[in-house]
Amino acid sequence: MKLVKIVLKNLFRHRLRTILTMLGIATAVMAFGLIRTIVGAWNAGVAAAAANRMITRQSVSFIFPLPLPYRQQIARVPGVTAVSWANWFGGVYGDPNDFKNFWPRLAVDAETFYDLYPEYQVPPDQLAQFRKERNACIIGRKLAAQHGFKIGDVITMEGDIFPGRWEWVVRGSTRAGTRPWTRPKCSSSGTTCTSRCGHGSQVAPWRPVGSSCEWNHRRDAARRDRRRRAVREFARADQDRDREGVPAGFVAMSSAIITSLQVISVVIVGIILLVLANTIVMAVRERTREYAVLKTLGFTARHLIALIFGESLLIALCGGLLGLALTFPMVAGFGKALPTFFPIINVAPLTIGLALGAALIAGAVAALFPATRVVRTPIVTGLRMVG
After folding, report:
1. What's the angle, vertex CA 323, arms to CA 257 and CA 25, rounded to 5?
2. CA 107 to CA 212: how far, in whole Å?
3. For the chain, percent helix, then strand, then coil, each to nearest 5?
4. How many angstroms separate the CA atoms of 83 and 75, rounded?
5. Less crowded by CB within 10 Å, the N or C end of the chain?
6. What average pLDDT score do residues 58-81 get?
């Protein structure tokens, strides 16, 4: 108990320096937590992909179509239970420089697409109306809340892949739901806009007619591999992606950015260490004579190590907890600013553990050298030191 009192008194002998050190650690922990959360949210689509779905797309880019006859050939592959198709429509809504105006826009087969994506829950009456009208669209509920879209509103877009001015009538909205044979949530269902495929293919007859093909299958790995080989027999130039393959393909497009963020998160741990080490080294140097006096009074090396490590770990703990407290509102604000790119963004328990663990490890490492130096310094030498 006496050692704890001494640690607490030493902690605030230089209040400004201690507070600034805690704030520096808090800022680094907050940045670490935010970066880790962004990387995790960016990869969320891969983890949330349904295990019983496979997607085939054109090998160059998903905006290039596959021949529609592939649909019938894929449907005849043993084990395939359903087939649908979709086109990336693209288009520009509002200010193209505003991230809020970008969201996934797909032209889909209205009759079959939502059967293969049961996690996109649409009220039956809205889905029926969507299937009746050629210029109808269905949007995610988050997207509707963000832009104030309502049923019956007209969304006007300037085409890029399909040139022209397009008007889509909102006929329904989706929400992420649960089914016993799918993942609990779909990471993009709240910010996706789907329209009927027929509209796009009708107005652009000069483009090759095609789509990306999607189908359900069982979880049996051996049967899945046989089906993939069967698909390659007639789609050698294309890519079939099992389960998380297509979401992973999107993530791979920005792999350099993700890798850079991961490297930065490691560098931040080094920053925490340097900030804290500087404070502890200065504090121990100033108290060298005091530690020599404590030795003469009977304090052992274990007591001195406990004093130095206790102060360092306490500073690291306080800074880490403050940084974690700041991480949650930062993540919430980031997700609100970019809801399309990060429809689901939460601070994971693993991120909390890593951030707090990094701060505590930095605190232990920062105290290692000063504690060793104090223990090895002879009493006479210590008494001669002037901090």
Report:
1. 85
2. 11
3. 55, 15, 30
4. 6
5. N
6. 77
